[in-house]
Amino acid sequence: MKISTKGRYALRMLIDLAEHQNEGFIALKDIAARQNISKKYLEQIVPILNKSNMLLTNRGFQGGYKLAKSPSQYTLGDILRYTEGDLAPVACLAQSPNQCSRCENCPTLPIWQGLYDVINNYLDGITLQDVIDKQQNFGADNYVI
Q1: Model-level pTM greater than 0.85?
Q2: Are 33 and 47 in contact (CB under 8 A)?
Q3: What would the pLDDT profile of 74-107 be if each residue is shown by its tens digit?
Q4: What is the pLDDT of residues 37-78, one digit of tens each?
Q5: What DSSP letter does each residue of the chain carry, written as one string?
Q6: I want to staple 54 with a disulfide (CB 3.0 to 4.6 A). Which of 14, 49, 113, 136 is the partner?
Q7: How far apart are CA 64 and CA 1, in angstroms?
Q8: Is 132:15 a contact under the CB 8 Å cutoff?
């Protein structure tokens, strides 16, 4: 399993929106500039996030995007599942129930299931707020002279 650019950029976009949530609607060009991501690429990600009800949109002069909920209500697991489709390390785990003809006798299936559980539990245990808090704590302890 490899997280694509789409998933990574969606996370960065939502973290940016969470960091600037008190500024109202944020223009996509501002997010693109701060995150050093192509605005065109972000325009491809926005429909996925809109469809999943993660964003609020405002058109016009003061238009842009903002989070539909508090940053503490977005888990990294949910965001990556929306953008990547699934986090399964092997194809047979992406189907429920498992449709693989070998699943009853597969000696490696428990290994992949365990990995899948660890991935989901880890990513579902981290919110956008957690990322922001950790970044702020890192910055507070980082003294440069």
Answers
A1: yes
A2: no
A3: 999 999 999 998 899 988 888 888 888 888 889 9
A4: 999 999 999 999 999 999 999 988 888 999 999 999 999 999
A5: ----HHHHHHHHHHHHHHHTGGG-SB-HHHHHHHHT--HHHHHHHHHHHHHTT-EEEE-STT-EEEESS-GGG-BHHHHHHHHHS---SSGGGGSSS---TTTTT-SSHHHHHHHHHHHHHHHHT-BHHHHHHHHHHHHHT----
A6: 49
A7: 33
A8: yes
